[in-house]
Amino acid sequence: MLSTTPRTTLGREKQRAATDRAELYEVLDSALICHLGVVRDGHPMVVPTGYGRIGETLYVHGSTGATSLRSGQGAEVCVTVTHVDGIVLARSIFNHSFNYRCAMIYGTARPVTDPDEHLEGLRALSEHLAPGQWDYTRRPTRKELAATSVLALPLEEASVKIRRGAPGDDDADYALPIWAGVLPVVTGFGPPVPDPVLPEGTAVPPHILNRR
Amino acid sequence: MLSTTPRTTLGREKQRAATDRAELYEVLDSALICHLGVVRDGHPMVVPTGYGRIGETLYVHGSTGATSLRSGQGAEVCVTVTHVDGIVLARSIFNHSFNYRCAMIYGTARPVTDPDEHLEGLRALSEHLAPGQWDYTRRPTRKELAATSVLALPLEEASVKIRRGAPGDDDADYALPIWAGVLPVVTGFGPPVPDPVLPEGTAVPPHILNRR
């Protein structure tokens, strides 16, 4: 079950709340990036960044984000991951919406200092981006590792909000001669584009060719 | 030209900064949602939401977001709009990246109280979602307007960061027998899905059928 703290309990559209941890994992594992929110000098700052998950922990790059994170102490963050699945076209402007799946995670981001966890966090980030690349490409050197900070965020205080399906119109509006429905938003991968300086004939590895 | 305040001047990857307002508009006008960051009870909160643009002003729904916004006073926000265009697959883990276009806008969100601007803001939100729907579907009633708050954010303090093209690897790594390149991320619309209760034969209007 997901937590029910005041800030993860939905104030609006409560029927859209998902309460199963499996739904949280599904939303996180199938997206490419998150939006990391921090408070910097008293104002909000939202940066897109990659992430990876190992069990109950989310790993994000630490170089993005708040000064307080870079200085090594933990900081309050909000990580939001959103899939836009469709545009909900209702009979009234008022009932227009999106179909979406959104996870929000609150917590204190801990800078990862243990060398083993640091490497595992980077591996999770890499495998989230493109599964198979960790074993296929050149691993980080000691110098590169030192230049890459990783933050760990426990998946303790999280909410998931999902909207699926047809528009919900006001009763009287169903009689209107207006087309209503959903325009699906589809995201996928195009054919791999080789680096122009790649030696001719270098084969695209199967884990890239078949990335879903 | 875009602003160059301390928080819109990139600390890292300066070569990725775009400085043209046209690029800001392009990033904003071609995305579907933004991530709105606010400070709520001292902690960051990031919510996905729709938006629209009229000239130098961004309009977002006010019902999402901070308590301070709902109470009617302006609040510091950060609005981030991100397109993920590709996964950059380098020869080393360290040089992996995303191709992306990202706009960040800082400012004080002003609750819109003028009835004309309120309606124009909603129209911009609606037309951003699906151009043509404002004239095609039922317009908001007075009661619906009262239930929909709109925030205005000036496009004054903004930054745009863009990464395009092939991976940038370390000189020595180009000799490695590793495929490198970009896996494009493609987002588009699927065929419209009619509301199941729609009378048979209701035609999909051209502005939905041809939405790009």
TrEMBL record, chains A, B:
Record keywords, A-Z: Oxidoreductase
GO molecular function: oxidoreductase activity
Keyword Oxidoreductase: yes
InterPro entries linked to this entry: Pyridox_Oxase-rel, Split_barrel_FMN-bd
Pfam families for this protein: Pyridox_ox_2
Keyword Oxidoreductase recorded: yes
EC numbers on record: 1.-.-.-
Enzyme class, first EC level, given as a word: oxidoreductase
Gene3D superfamilies cross-referenced by the UniProt entry: Electron Transport, Fmn-binding Protein, Chain A
PANTHER family hit by this protein: 5-NITROIMIDAZOLE ANTIBIOTICS RESISTANCE PROTEIN, NIMA-FAMILY-RELATED PROTEIN-RELATED, FLAVIN-NUCLEOTIDE-BINDING PROTEIN
Protein name: Pyridoxamine 5'-phosphate oxidase family protein
Species whose genome carries this gene: Nonomuraea typhae
